[in-house]
Amino acid sequence: QGKQKKARKYAVMKRMISLRDQRLNVKDRAKVPVKKKEDPSAIKEREVPQHPSCLFFQYNTQLGPPYHILVDTNFINFSIKAKLDLVQSMMDCLYAKCIPCITDCVMGEIEKLGQKYRVALRIAKDPRFERLPCMHKGTYADDCLVQRVTQHKCYIVATVDKELKRRIRKIPGVPIMYISRHRYNIERMPDDYGAPRF
């Protein structure tokens, strides 16, 4: 006589005893949460996100020459590959004075890349670059740039990173500078999104 084949049961979970089960000791049982009755006379508080005063609908009134441009790690690397002078190309793109800003996180990222990116490090230490100190822990530059741009809407973000671009596009009033066809281009500048014309 052969063994009887048992049909396998799929997605069967182990039956677990509830923490409120009567068979458990009193000290092991989960306490039943007591619901507090809401006071109808109490003032109800709800948090409404504060919109920045610099935005006129989608138009950012804080943006104006001299433009402060937050530079990302890969933007410097791609500029070197495309043989573009960072400051001069920015000025050619925007037709105004540009101040490239570099955060401690981006500087840390470039330093971590090692000997291969020593040219990028030398460019980042240029005296024309404005250095922005970071107060947070860690050196993940993308989060730092997104947080800084959310708080202060006076920056243009220079990046080639698709993921960072996607995150910044969700923030209203923040233009993105990128490289294509060996020149700098700008996305979402004030003229593009319905600037008030008086």
UniProtKB/TrEMBL annotation:
Its main location: nucleus. SUPFAM superfamilies: PIN domain-like. Residues 67-166 form the PIN domain. One of its GO terms (cellular component) is small-subunit processome. It is found in: Nucleus, Nucleolus. One of its GO terms (biological process) is rRNA processing. Pfam families: Fcf1 (PF04900). CDD domains: PIN_Fcf1-like. Keywords: Nucleus, Ribosome biogenesis, rRNA processing. Part of the small subunit (SSU) processome, first precursor of the small eukaryotic ribosomal subunit. During the assembly of the SSU processome in the nucleolus, many ribosome biogenesis factors, an RNA chaperone and ribosomal proteins associate with the nascent pre-rRNA and work in concert to generate RNA folding, modifications, rearrangements and cleavage as well as targeted degradation of pre-ribosomal RNA by the RNA exosome. Belongs to the UTP23/FCF1 family. FCF1 subfamily. Part of the small subunit (SSU) processome, composed of more than 70 proteins and the RNA chaperone small nucleolar RNA (snoRNA) U3. PANTHER family: RRNA-PROCESSING PROTEIN UTP23 HOMOLOG. This is rRNA-processing protein FCF1 homolog. The lineage of its organism: Eukaryota, Metazoa, Chordata, Craniata, Vertebrata.
